[in-house]
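To: structure desk
From: M.T.
Subject: fold request, one chain
Message: Could you run this one when you get a chance? Sequence is below, nothing fancy, just the single chain.
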Amino acid sequence: MSERVTYKRLLRQFAAIGPYLREDLCEEGRYRFDCLSVCVSAKPAPDKREFWGWWLVLEQDDHHFRYHYQLGFYDADGVWLDKPVPKKHQAEVERTLNHFYKILVDRLTVLECHLAPAEQVTNELAVTAA
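Reply: Done. Structure tokens follow.
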């Protein structure tokens, strides 16, 4: 097993994945990611746009990580709400989540870390790297 993966190293690795990391919401052992997958309307100013997407929390115990995520709505105030994604946007939201998950798995594998769903993630909601 390699040396302990430090918080700073993980932040660098996660930031390199793309615009998913919400570093201001992270703390040692707990990392937060999200993705604004589908814009509801391009009419409002960019800082007031709303989106359908997902957020994911990754919790660390040494070289083991557990994730749980939620699909939902990102409102004009920058708050994630647990709302059902409309059927016409589900495929795109799921595509972006699965894309992120594959990159995350690859990144953690290089660091000799393991990723698994948290207990609250049911089999139907488990993400795959497919």
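Reply (cont.): The chain has a mean pLDDT of 91. Let me know if you need anything else for the meeting.
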